[in-house]
Amino acid sequence: MSKLYVGSEVGQLRRVLVHRPERSLTHLTPSNCQDLLFDDVLSVEDAGKEHDRFVNTLTSQGVDVLQLHELMVETLAVSEAKQWLLNNQISDFRYGPIFARDLRAYLSDMDNEHLAAILLGGLAYAEVPIRSASMLPKMHRPADFVIEPLPNHLFTRDTSCWIYGGVSLNPMTMPARQRETNHLRAIYRWHPDFANNDFIRYFDNDNRFYDNANIEGGDVLVIGKGAVLIGMSERTTAQGVENLAASLFESQQATQVIAMNLPKHRSCMHLDTVMTHIDIDTFSVYPEVINHALETWRLTPKGNGDMEVKAMPNYMQAIELALGLDQLKIITTGGDNYEAEREQWNDANNVLTVKPGTVIGYERNVYTNEKYDKAGIEVLTIPGNELGRGRGGARCMSCPVERDGI
């Protein structure tokens, strides 16, 4: 396997991690979807077909696509990884010591393919054939989840994100997503493609409670030239940003972190739902959220383990200075106020750049795609009528593990 390194948002994308939505979506219902952070239930078959189109578009651009489910199966084949995952995901504190022991024993006898499907997609009490002395199963209805499904694994961008020569194993904010991080921990530690590689891991202590230091990959843009742009959204905290910045500076993987204070609401759940980097000097922006009024800071290392935090006049100037550009080009969300708001909600700004000036985006965002086209940005469109219901576009659904710098 070649070098694991992500040097920018717009350099040639070489390898990416995705997750085809499967079993987890079959467990989404109108009564539980909100708790699982989805606004609606999806057609499982159509969502799978749309995801296949996404993967085919990536491979047509010469991108090597890794599938999370396959990596999980191959990781579970390593006995140490399997034992670690079962101990962590089926812990005594989550289930009580009696039921945890019985459940672990039941799961450890499964073949790895089936076990991966359950860890990713969930399990109901009715599906567990074991008898346990524990009170827990007796207190639940058959349709209740023993293991909650993880439909948000579809958005591989958030759980872990590669920043130059390292990966951040992100402490997720929402309980519905916190188990995802351990799956990536296991893959990066034990899967043969990663175990034999030399790279840095941030937030990788599974015995540590990271408390208020939350960070999610949708808020992290590796804009290149040693700079990282991070949005402080409803899912990423200042504590998370400062801890990550300190680690990046200590490992000399970044020379500056630009932090933007975003409104804390669902329509701009992450920075990349309102702003993405689409060419070396060009960003896609939803101006209702991303504007000069946003507080912006620049964090830089002092060299003694400390860092300097400096307020910047605005985000554009901070990015221009970081990238050595005279002027940024901004492409705003298309259409009138109503159309722009609708298209932003449907991830018009959440495009994935595969090389400078070429992006993948949902075909339904016609006004924004037209603006990209007029600005010389090639849009490779994919259907997103089902996938978009989870509030995430092509960038959300992809975790680059190898990408050129600028």
TrEMBL record:
<keyword id="KW-0056">Arginine metabolism</keyword>
<keyword id="KW-0378">Hydrolase</keyword>
<dbReference type="GO" id="GO:0019546">
    <property type="term" value="P:L-arginine deiminase pathway"/>
</dbReference>
<dbReference type="GO" id="GO:0005737">
    <property type="term" value="C:cytoplasm"/>
</dbReference>
<comment type="similarity">
    <text>Belongs to the arginine deiminase family.</text>
</comment>
<dbReference type="GO" id="GO:0016990">
    <property type="term" value="F:arginine deiminase activity"/>
</dbReference>
<feature type="active site" description="Amidino-cysteine intermediate">
    <location>
        <position position="396"/>
    </location>
</feature>
<keyword id="KW-0963">Cytoplasm</keyword>
<protein>
    <recommendedName>
        <fullName>Arginine deiminase</fullName>
        <ecNumber>3.5.3.6</ecNumber>
    </recommendedName>
</protein>
<dbReference type="Pfam" id="PF02274">
    <property type="entry name" value="ADI"/>
</dbReference>
<dbReference type="InterPro" id="IPR003876">
    <property type="entry name" value="Arg_deiminase"/>
</dbReference>
<comment type="pathway">
    <text>Amino-acid degradation; L-arginine degradation via ADI pathway; carbamoyl phosphate from L-arginine: step 1/2.</text>
</comment>
